[in-house]
Amino acid sequence: MMTDQLREVIAGVDTHGETHHAAVIDPLGRHLADEEFPASGAGYRDLLSWLGSHGTVAAVGVEGTGAYGAELARVLARGGLRVVEVDRPDRKTRRLKGKSDPIDAYAAATAVASGRATGVPKARDGIVEAIRALRVPRRSAVKARTQAINQARQLLITAPEALRAQLRGLSAIELATACVRLRPGGDCSAPLGATKAALRRLGRRILILSEEITELDAELKTLTAQAAPTLLGRMGVGPDVAGQLLATAGDNPDRLRSEAAFAHLCGVAPIPASSGRRDRHRLNRGGDRAANHALHTIVLSRMRWDDRTRVYVQRRTEQGLSKKDIMRCLKRHIAREIYRALTDDLYARQHPTLTTLTDLAPAA
């Protein structure tokens, strides 16, 4: 028993909605034991105790730390264990080795032991997680409002001219307000009455969603100002863009090893595609596409309003680059700037007395 407690082991966990399957291996990769636990508070405690009974746990590889394994990752981290984010096995591996919970759990442990898995999971226990949660209903509300506006305008295309003339040339909110005031009458068997009834319901939906979006925007503006004042000070970065970049980075800045890693995370780092004497790079279509879109928004803003960016665009255009190529270059440059501001803000929240890179920078 004493030997078991002194032995170093590596663990892996295959996570699901109702159960988690854990496995432990030794540093040589030999399978030691595996067990299934319920995905509950008691199950997490039992899993933690079970891991400790097999020796000193060097690290735990967890699948799905952003989904089913989120709470387990938090529990393991609070228990003093090093948690490593593990990708789910690809289809080729599953075809060759099969698929089962024990197989996946052992594969997660092996990925950590071999050094293939090194990712640090998001902490999901701070203000950034709060921002991410609030962005979920905002995103769906914006999508639903846009859909309702489009449906209302589509109905007007085939509506009788008298109704079209009444609602022509109005903005989205003005149209919704006017639609709410329509009186369809009791007979919906006539096309005019049915159209008015449909527009009234769509107008009510648009106004309710607009109010919800306004409330969420106010909450997100307050939270992003607390979490990332330096980031918000960068040109082209508003609460929505800052919120997305924070959600991509997570609460723990140690996940971002370098500005190059952040660029890869956002999908703006060119991928080497050289062969023989031909030296070239190809477009990176991976990474977090929402973060990529946030950087795209910053680029569009600066191309219109920032003098330095406009000079850069003109110079690169004269060199023969297309607009798309110029925007890709700008995204990569801006990712470097955003990384610095983002990590400064996140480190400042973790270590209020720590001097940041921005503090050390000379005044302009």
TrEMBL record:
Coiled-coil blocks: 199-226
InterPro entries for the chain: Transp_IS110-like_N, Transpos_IS110, Transposase_20
GO biological process: DNA transposition
Protein name (record): Transposase
Signal peptide positions (record): none
Domain (Transposase IS110-like N-terminal) ranges: 11-156
Top-level taxon of the source organism: Bacteria
GO molecular function, one term: DNA binding
Keyword tRNA-binding: no
Keyword entries, A-Z: Coiled coil
Domain Transposase IS116/IS110/IS902 C-terminal: 235-313
